[in-house]
Amino acid sequence: MPTDEPAPQKPDSFAALRYKDFRSYIGMRFFFTFAYQMQTTVLGFYIYQLTHSKIAIAFIGLAEAIPAVGIALYGGYIADKYEKRKMLLIIFAGVFVAALAMFTVTLDDLRPYIHHTWILPVLYAMIFCNGLARAFYGPATFVIYAHSIPKELYPNGSTWSSSSWQVASILGPLTGGAIYGFAGHLIPGLSGMTATFIVILAFMLVALVLVYRLRKFPPVFVPKENIWKSLKEGLDFVFTNKIMFYAMSLDLFSVFFGGVVALLPVFALDILKVGPEGLGIMRMATSLGAALTMITMVRFSPMNRPWRNLLIAVAGFGLSIICFGLSRVFYLSLVFLFMQGAFDSVSVIIRGTLMQLLTPDHMRGRVSAVNSMFIGSSNEIGDFESGMAAKLMGTIPAVIFGGSMTLLIVTITFLKTKKLIPLSLTEIHAPEADKVVD
Questions:
Q1: Cα Rg, the chain, nearest whole Å
Q2: Which residue among 54, 73, 85, 139 is the one 20 to 30 A from 244 at the CA level?
Q3: pLDDT at position 3, please?
């Protein structure tokens, strides 16, 4: 029989991209991430090549994590109080100046004028400055994302946002490793480090232009209480929301123990013996797995049973790390790094969507700051842990230990949150859902 009911419409996979500010946000994030991933890749290799010290690698993460964690709450407070576009312009300008300083100190032509004992301190100082910038960058971009698209498009926007980050994370390390390894052969007299930083600076300038194209994002809520009371309110909100707390904790400890990125220069030079080009490919493999998975998730969302899928993804992340540590074949190692990125991307999408949905507008800056303390700097703190563990235990045992600890953390979280596993996204978002957590 004929019916007057309209035919169901297919979901619009490009819905978030139809908003101008969101497109500028995505472009800015892509070019900045591309440049930053290139910089991280070549700095790790350059410092390890210079020192052959795992402790030196560990201090790269620590130099960035200390300021990023130390003033993260203040960064969130500022993001709630001030206009976000202006904040990003200042942040990006500062990161550009830090990259320019690193470019200068590593120039071969200036080597006669810069004592070799100054190179490492200057690099660590600029990494520290990047950590300061990150304390403000995360809360500012979190607020811009939230107000660039309607709330009902957050899952779609989160997928596109994470995908742009992952695609840049594929191209950045691959490009950085290739330029670092081949520039000297293609252009005589030009070092790989110099050529790489020229590209980094160019991409940072593009990101700065895209920030300028954003509209202004004035504060939605200006805290009237003193800063300490305001920051305590943000902390209290996260720690009393059990779903958010467990999601952040799961990500924090899995990345803290399970990260292997800091040790990739050791694998590239000493274990797999594939050089800077191989390092770029290894860094790319993780991001390629993440990006392809996120593109798939645009069509097949993991949000039907988000908590179940989150636990499965983090468990897969831990197993991939253990397998990578046991592998001695370069191409097999790439497969495990690909799987690590794929599982991690599922976790990022789910946690990002839950955070956006559970956070009220007037607390987005401060909640994002708490998230930065838990998650944003866990990679760098994890890098420090990995470097110290490799020094004390050996590189391979340190990687296997990290993957095993990740599996233990998933098991503990599963036992604490079993009642969330069958719930849909709508049910988890409901106010009473928080009460079912043990």
A1: 22
A2: 85
A3: 45
**Fold assignment, 226-430:** Growth Hormone; Chain: A; (1.20.1250)
CB of 191 closer than 8 Å to CB of 184 = yes
Output the six-digit token pair for 135: 């304390």
Q: Is 219 exposed, middle or buried (0-12, 13-18, 19+ CB in 10 A)?
A: middle
HSE of 359, CA atoms in CB hemisphere, 13 A = 31
Residue 31: the pLDDT is 94
For position 58, what pLDDT does the model report?
A: 80
Other beta carbons within 10 angstroms of residue 183's beta carbon come to 18
**Domain at 18-224, CATH from 2.60.120.620, 1.20.1250.20, 2.40.37.10, 1.10.600.10:** 1.20.1250.20
Residue 141 has which token pair?
Answer: 């971009």
Sequence spans of domains, the chain: 18-224, 226-430
Average pLDDT per 10 consecutive residues for the chain, totaling 438 residues: 47 78 89 91 86 83 80 73 86 94 85 76 92 84 81 78 78 83 70 88 94 80 61 71 79 76 83 82 82 78 81 91 91 92 84 75 66 64 77 87 90 85 68 60
Q: Cα–Cα distance between 430 and 374 in angstroms, integer? A: 24
Could you write out the three-class secondary structure of 148-207?
A: HCCHHHHHHHHHHHHHHHHHHHHHHHHHHHHHHHHHHHHCCCCCHHHHHHHHHHHHHHHH
Instruction: Flag whether the pTM goes above 0.85.
Output: no
Nearest Cα to 399, choosing from 407, 390, 411, 408? 390
Nearest of 330, 332, 324 to residue 395 by alpha carbon: 324
CATH topology identical between 18-224 and 226-430: yes
Query: Both tokens of residue 204?
Result: 């940072």
Give 342: exposed, middle or buried? Use CB within 10 Å, 0-12, 13-18, 19+: buried
Question: Alpha-carbon distance 22 to 12, whole Å?
Answer: 16
Q: Is the backbone of residue 222 left (phi > 0), alpha (psi -120 to 50) or beta?
A: beta
Residues in the chain: 438
What's the token pair of residue 421?
């596993």
Q: What are phi and psi of 2, to 5 degrees?
A: -65, 150
